[in-house]
Every structure is written in C-alpha cells, then in structure tokens.
C-alpha cells in the first residue's frame, strides 16, 4: 500500500512539475535580457552621436566650455560602465546605470538650451541632421524603456505570484529592477531638441 501511495505521489509530482512555471521563467528571463539589450543599444546610439554633436557646437560656441565639458564628462561616465544582462540581477548597479544615463540626458538638455543662442549653429545642416538623429534616438530610447518595463513587470509578477513563486524560490529567481522615475512628468516628455527658427 505504501509503494502504491509513493508511486501516485511521484506521478502527481511529475505532472505538477510540467506546470510549475520553470519553462515560463526561462522564457521571461530571455525576454528580459532581449528587451534590456535593446535599451542598451539605443543608449549606445545616443552616446555615439555625442562626439559629433559636441564638435559641431564647439565650432560655433567654443566659449561654452562648461556645457561642452559636462556633456563630454557625462558621455565618459556612461562609456566607462561595464553593462551587460547581469545588471538586471544587481539593483545597485542598475541604479548607477540609470543615474549615469540621467546625467547624460541632463547634459544634452543644457547643450540644446545653449545652442538656442547661436543662430548660425541652428542653421548649420550638419547640426540639424544630428538634431534629427538625436530626436529619433530619444524616441527609440523611450520605446525601448517602455518595452523593458512591461517585460520586467511580467517577470516580477511571475516571481511573486503563487504557485510560481515556489518555483522562483526553488531555482533562485528574484525580482529584477525596473526604471525608477524621480520625476514622472519630466521623464515622460522627450528632451526638446527642436532647433527651428521661432517666429
């Protein structure tokens, strides 16, 4: 009788393992890594635009050295961070990454504000091309971040929901950090990078 009970228990356990959520976690983890890669890709695209942007601005507004230095320093800080998918498992490193990107956004916003004082710069075709690329990149960053936030939301809900949370505990799956927003209104509006003449 005891052997039959053990066999029934083992059979039920095997049936339950198929629905325990392990495969779901594998899928969600891969989705989170893929969406994170896209976030990194778009931030890298922005960082790659910065040297050309700074050089064009420098040609017209060289005495704005403080702003140019802030942009260069922010880009250097972003570039010095070794960022990969493991950042998703380290909330402290994730927060540092987010702070560095926020510093870059702030420095670029100051640079754009300064450029308003230089009509010849605003009329420069190279600058206008860079402005269009930067605006497109900022939009792509917003889209990539939103996708990442949604992906991580699904992952974190699975980690916290019963009975999947049992599987998460058994296999060491923990919640992953998402983008924290200090100022929701400020982050929901892409930086203004319009250089057209104001009438």
- Work out the strand percent: under 5%
Helical content class:
over 70%
Write the CATH homologous superfamily: LemA-like domain
Instruction: Report low-confidence residues grouped into runs of 5 or more.
Output: 183-199
**CATH-assigned fold name:** de novo design (two linked rop proteins)
- Kindly give the count of domains: 1
The main β sheet shows up as: none
Mean pLDDT: 81
Report on the structure:
The protein has 8 helices and no strands. With 199 residues, it is mainly α. It has a single domain, classed as LemA-like domain (de novo design (two linked rop proteins), Up-down Bundle). Helix 2 packs antiparallel against helix 3, helix 2 runs antiparallel to helix 6 and helix 3 runs antiparallel to helix 4. The chain is elongated, with a radius of gyration of 24 Å. The C terminus is likely disordered.
Indicate the topology:
Layout (H helix, E strand, L loop, with lengths): L1 H17 L3 H39 L4 H16 L10 H25 L3 H5 L1 H36 L3 H8 L12 H5 L11
């Amino acid at each position: 009788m005891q052997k039959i009970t053990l066999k029934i228990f083992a059979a039920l356990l095997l049936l339950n393992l198929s629905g325990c959520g392990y495969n779901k976690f594998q899928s969600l983890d891969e989705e989170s890594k893929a969406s994170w890669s896209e976030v990194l890709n778009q931030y890298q695209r922005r960082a790659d635009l910065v040297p050309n942007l700074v050089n064009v601005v420098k040609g017209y507004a060289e005495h704005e050295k403080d702003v140019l230095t802030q942009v260069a320093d922010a880009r250097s800080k972003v570039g010095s961070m070794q960022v990969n998918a493991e950042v998703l498992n380290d909330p402290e490193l994730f927060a540092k990454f987010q702070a560095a990107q926020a510093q870059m956004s702030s420095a670029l916003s100051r640079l754009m504000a300064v450029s308003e004082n230089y009509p010849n710069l605003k009329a420069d075709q190279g600058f206008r091309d860079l402005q269009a690329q930067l605006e497109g990149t900022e939009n792509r960053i917003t889209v990539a971040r939103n996708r990442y936030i949604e992906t991580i939301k699904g992952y974190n809900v699975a980690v916290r929901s019963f009975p999947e949370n049992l599987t998460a505990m058994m296999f060491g799956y923990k919640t992953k950090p998402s983008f924290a927003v200090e100022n929701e209104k400020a982050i929901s509006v892409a930086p203004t990078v319009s250089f057209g003449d104001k009438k």
